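Recap from last week: sequence in, structure out.
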Amino acid sequence: MQLPFDSAQGKPSSPEFENRSNCHPDEGLQKLLNRLVIRIERDELVRKTTNHLRESLQANRVVLYYFYEQWQGQVTFESLSADEYSILGFTGPSGCFNHEYAALYLEGRVRAIADIELEPIQDCHRDFLRSMQVRANLVVPILIPRGLWGLLVAHHCQHPRDWTLTDIELGIEPRYV
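Predicted structure tokens:
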């Protein structure tokens, strides 16, 4: 099939090829762009928050652990003191974080562990922390109206650390979304 050709314009003269510059922008595309801008702004806020928290706590790593399924999650953001501490994309061991832990965090529990080797925690939890080079951690729930969205976690990797009340208060500050 041959399309009619407008030799004066140098292009096909079919309606599909008409100039559409005078049409209104596609509303769907505009909505997509608006959502992208909101996401970029949110990501920048999370980056600034995790960086500020890591620097204030003088921790090796601060991560945002997002629950994408019932108590299955993944590290979606991180702020690092050195690249060697990167765990971006890590997921927790299946079944280790359960309804019992979730209920505690839903109630607003903040957990400060000075030394994972001495703390009475499940073996799967200790092994998971070891696999990420964690020696001490501070965990704060991120709560949204629907429930537990994720965890904001500070890791100290070189040695045990006694978290102070000031450290814990710093961690609690950004926890409600």
